[in-house]
Structure formats: structure tokens, C-alpha cells
UniProtKB/TrEMBL annotation:
Subcellular location: Cytoplasm
Keywords: Cytoplasm, Endonuclease, Exonuclease, Hydrolase, Metal-binding, Nuclease, RNA-binding, rRNA processing, Zinc
Gene3D superfamilies linked: 3.10.20.580, Metallo-hydrolase/oxidoreductase, Ribonuclease Z/Hydroxyacylglutathione hydrolase-like
Metallo-beta-lactamase domain ranges (all copies): 28-222
Function: An RNase that has 5'-3' exonuclease and possibly endonuclease activity. Involved in maturation of rRNA and in some organisms also mRNA maturation and/or decay.
Top-level lineage group: Bacteria
Protein name, per record: Ribonuclease J
């Protein structure tokens, strides 16, 4: 689905404008902008992790073009929870304007502040908790407890004279959560009685029937796997999945093993979680990983990052024998996380690498070592029936997830015309219970590549893919500036092409002839001559070698 770009009409008085900037048609980059009475409220500001067709990219940010020039109008950024796909882009927003207030729960803000400290930014924050209401500019905010795969997640109700909006953030309805903190369906019902005019709802598991299994169902499986493991155990998970880490710690302690955290983000996040009381560690269980090597192999569990096959994360480096800990025969590796769409090949490469080293790899395909943090179809139907919203905007998911969520809304009795299938940049106006699409912004990907932000383009990534897949050919020719006659060359060098450079001997006369013909036609422009060279060798390589490499012609005037 691609909506034609169209400028939205002027915002009418008393109307709330809602613009998803990221998180629609993708799993990540979650960010939505709300505008009322000249002021902006942002809900979430996350990153998307690159896929294989985006080589060299570190992170992908939401396109802030939608709010460029409006930074002074932002009254706050509500962060629903502490996962990277909801908080990861906050440093890049605050680099543009450092005093934008951040609003969130205790753990969420602690994780954000630790991230911002690395960027040397000290933010303005407002800590909130479930049941709390805050007036932020023209927005009356109410925070509702929701259950997710990280503690302290919040949904947010946004009241303006235009109506009541409820944004769930990421959530599920685990009825026996490890921390006892349920998704507050009583608050949902109360808001439903008041009348929800627009419901922004998590779509990630909308195409999964039934109910998401309980997090605590993983505990016995981890206990069994760790209890039977003959040597070292290495568990990989998201570095913010406090509940999962808690269950690993509990299983390790039950079997007399100690736990060492691996990976900078894992150490940072779990230290914060323990200090704030979200992670409970028995005395004497944690050990620094440098000291852990002195323990017997059957007395240690390493808790690491890298469950998505990220090249520089701990688990990938272990699989490549590029880490101090080298997995081997008899070791057990547990991948206790989901597969983010697009990461499958990278994860299976890591699994294969670890298996070749002799490790027993346990993952969600062969054991119940992961449950999702997102509501499945049955849970979403419950929400629709409790809330009975006037309008629904499925968010947080790829297009098939959004479509499945819209179908659930319609199955529950919400009219199809009140179910908005949007994409990033779709502009929606809400007033008097009516939500309608009024425009489509042209938003793209903003790539973080090393120290550069937004400088890498899709064209650059295409060049990188060509270099990686097809190789590189340079052609150097020196011509007489006055006559255009060839003085030296053409000299051809190739990289990433299987054939020897001698294979190009047959094309050199063709290049020379093409340049001679161009000179006789009066062509003297250096760029035009380079294009002649590019076309000539490009045609020949395509026909003779069946390749389309990057060709860099250099025509030097003498």
C-alpha cells in the first residue's frame, strides 16, 4: 500500500491531528505526533534495526521532517516503555532541541537517561505511573498499566476537546505476570464508558490466533535445560528483557550456577533494573565475567546480547570465535527471544556456527524458550469489545499485521470506514467522533552510519550492495585536451570480479574506438567522455561476464 503524497489541509480549530511518523509497515521506529491548538505531543521515538540489504547502517531513525521547524511547539515526548524500538531515537531528537520534556515510568526513564548519558545529554523528565493524570500543554494525559516483555510499560489516554485517544504502546494480557502487574482492563473499561474516539493499538501479533502464552511458562523449560546442561550455559536475549533475565537467574541459582552478564547494554540495563528493584538477584549469584572463567564449566551461566544475529553483538562474535568465550563441545546455548522480521538469515547463521562448534543450541523452534510480548488476536478482540472505540488506527507492525488487526476490529462490530489502514506519514484529523485521512507526508528512512546521521541515502546503499554483490571496475584513460586523442590507456582494474584483468584486453579497443568517435564528433567534455567509457564497458561486461559491477571511469586531460 502506497498512498500518493498530498499536503494536508490547514488544521481546523478544535481538531486533533494524528500523524504516525514510524512503526507502520515495519516492526520498529515507533513514533506518533499529535497536534492540537498549535502544540505537539509525541508518543514514542524509537529506532529500526537494519536488514541485510542495508549494509553498513547502524540504526534507522524516524524521519523528523514532519516536525522540522516545529521543535519549539513540542510540549513533551511520552515514552510507553523502554525498548529500543520505542526509545532509541530520543538522543537524536534531543540533539536538535535538548529541553523537550520526556514523560514515562521510572524504569523507562532510567533506561533513557543511561542512553542519553552516553550522548552527553541531560534531559528534562517527568516520571509518571499508572493511574496518574497530567496536563501537558493542551493535552490531558492519563496513564494506564499494561503488561509487556519489559516492566513498567504504560498505555496513554490523550484527552483534548476534540475527543479521547487511547494509545496502547506494546502490550499483551498476561494473566499471571511475573511482577503481578496486569494490563488494567478495569481502566480500559472505564475509558470505554467515557467513549474512546480513536484507538491506536499494537498490531504485532494480530495475525496470531488465540492468546499469547504466559511468560512464566518459560521458567520450567529454562530450569530443565539449565539443570541438564553438562557444561557452560550461554543464554541470549534482548538486553532489556528483565522478566526473561529474572527467570534465567532463578534457574541458575536453583542449580548452583552463577550468572555473568555479557554485552555493554545487558550490563547497563540489568544494573539499572536491579538498583530500581525490578530485577531480584539472590546474594552471591552474579559474578564478573572475567572472574567467571575460573569457575568449573558446570557452575556458570552467561547472559548475553546478540539474539538477533547482530554481527558485533556477543553471541555472533562467539560463533565466529572472535570473543574471549569460545563455545565448544558440550556447551548449551539458549536463544530466548523472538525473530524480528528480516533477521532470520543472520540468526540461523549464528545457530549454524554454534552448532558446528559442538554446542547444543536451544531456540524457539525446538523448545519453549520464548513467548511474545504482544497481544494475539484473542486478546485484541477482548480489548475491542471492552472499549468499543468509534475509530481504530492499527499501529506497530508490518502491513499484514495492520490488515489483520483491522479485520479483528471489523469482526467486533467497528465499521470498515472507521478502521483506518495508514502508513508512515498519513495525516488523520479527529473531531466530534469522526476520524478522516486528510493528507500523506513524504517520509523516508534516516540512516545512522557511524557518526553520520541522515547523510547516507538509498542510492549510497544501492552502491554498497552493487560493490558487495557485483564487484568494482575502474577504467583510466588519458586524452589530449585539444584533440581528444588517446594519449595513454585505457587501463582497466577490477576488484571482486572472478576473472583475471587480462579478460578485459578484448574490450580495450572498443573503448578506444568509442572515445575516438566521440572526439571526432566534437565531444570534449570530461564528464561526457566518462559516460562514453561507462556505457561501452558496461555493455561488454553485461554481455560477456553476465555481471553489473560498479564502473568508475576516469578520463584525464593532458
Amino acid at each position: 500500500m502506497t498512498t500518493p503524497v498530498s499536503a494536508p489541509e490547514a488544521l481546523a480549530p478544535g481538531t486533533l491531528r494524528v500523524t504516525p511518523v514510524g512503526g507502520l509497515g515495519e516492526v520498529g521506529r515507533n513514533m506518533t505526533v499529535f497536534e492540537f491548538d498549535g502544540k505537539l505531543l509525541i508518543v514514542d521515538c524509537g529506532v529500526l534495526f537494519p536488514e541485510e540489504h542495508q549494509p553498513g547502517v547502524d540504526l534507522i531513525l524516524p524521519d523528523f521532517e514532519a516536525i522540522r521547524g516545529r521543535l519549539d511547539d513540542i510540549v513533551g515526548v511520552v515514552l510507553t516503555h523502554g525498548h529500543e524500538d520505542h526509545i532509541g531515537a530520543v538522543p537524536y531528537l534531543l540533539k536538535r532541541k535538548g529541553d523537550i520534556p520526556l514523560i514515562g515510568s521510572q524504569l523507562t526513564l532510567a533506561l533513557v537517561e543511561a542512553k542519553l548519558k552516553e550522548h552527553r545529554i541531560k534531559p528534562y523528565t517527568l516520571t509518571v505511573k499508572e493511574g496518574q493524570r497530567e496536563q501537558v500543554g493542551p493535552f490531558d494525559l492519563e496513564f494506564v498499566a499494561v503488561n509487556h516483555s519489559i516492566p513498567d510499560a504504560l498505555a496513554v489516554g490523550i484527552r483534548t476537546p476534540a475527543g479521547l485517544v487511547l494509545a496502547t504502546g506494546d502490550f499483551k494480557m498476561d494473566q499471571l505476570p511475573l511482577d503481578g502487574r496486569l494490563t488494567d482492563l478495569r481502566a480500559f473499561a472505564r475509558l470505554g464508558e467515557e467513549g474512546v474516539d480513536l484507538f491506536l493499538v499494537d498490531s504485532t501479533n494480530a495475525d496470531v490466533p488465540g492468546f499469547t502464552p504466559l511468560e512464566r511458562a518459560i521458567g520450567p523449560v529454562l530450569d530443565q535445560v539449565i539443570g541438564k546442561a553438562p557444561r557452560r550455559v550461554i543464554v541470549a536475549s534482548f538486553s532489556s528483557h528483565v522478566h526473561r533475565v529474572q527467570q534465567v537467574i532463578d534457574a541458575a541459582a536453583a542449580h548452583g550456577r552463577r550468572v555473568a552478564f555479557l554485552g555493554r547494554s545487558m550490563v547497563r540495563n540489568m544494573t539499572i533494573a536491579e538498583q530500581l528493584g525490578y530485577l531480584h538477584v539472590p546474594d552471591g549469584v552474579l559474578i564478573d565475567y572475567k572472574k567467571a572463567k575460573d569457575l568449573p564449566d558446570d557452575r556458570i551461566v552467561y547472559m548475553s546480547t546478540g539474539s538477533q544475529g547482530e554481527p558485533m553483538a556477543v553471541l555472533s562474535r562467539m560463533a565466529n570465535l572472535d570473543h574471549a568465550i569460545e563455545p565448544g563441545e558440550g556447551d548449551t546455548v539458549i536463544l530466548a527471544s523472538s525473530l524480528i522480521p528480516g533477521n532470520e538469515n543472520a540468526v540461523y547463521r549464528v545457530i549454524d556456527g554454534l552448532t558446528k562448534l559442538g554446542a547444543n543450541v536451544v531456540h524457539k523452534a525446538n523448545a519453549k524458550v520464548h513467548v511474545s510480548g504482544h497481544a494475539a488476536a484473542g486478546e485484541l478482540l477482548y480489548c475491542y469489545n471492552i472499549l468499543k472505540p468509534k475509530n481504530v488506527l492499527p499501529v506497530h507492525g508490518e502491513y499484514r499485521h495492520l490488515m489483520a488487526n483491522a479485520k479483528l476490529a471489523q469482526d467486533s462490530g467497528i465499521p470498515a470506514e472507521n478502521t483506518i489502514l495508514a502508513e508512515n506519514g498519513t495525516v488523520i484529523d479527529l473531531k466530534d467522533g469522526v476520524a478522516r485521512v486528510v493528507g500523506q507526508l513524504d517520509l523516508g528512512f534516516v540512516y545512522v552510519d557511524g557518526s553520520s546521521v541522515g547523510e547516507i541515502t538509498d542510492a549510497d546503499l544501492k552502491d554498497r550492495r552493487i560493490l558487495g554483490e557485483e564487484g568494482f571496475i575502474s577504467v583510466i584513460v588519458v586524452v589530449d585536451a585539444a584533440t581528444g586523442r588517446i594519449v595513454t590507456g585505457p587501463e582497466i582494474h577490477a576488484r571482486g570480479v572472478a576473472e583475471d584483468d587480462a579478460v578485459f584486453d578484448s574490450v580495450k579497443p572498443k573503448i578506444a574506438q568509442a572515445l575516438t568517435d566521440a572526439a571526432q564528433s566534437g565531444v570534449r567534455d570530461q564528464h561526457a567522455l566518462q559516460q562514453v567509457v561507462r556505457r561501452t564497458i558496461g555493455r561488454w561486461v553485461n554481455q560477456s561476464l553476465r555481471r553489473r559491477p560498479m564502473i568508475v571511469p576516469m578520463v584525464i586531460e593532458a
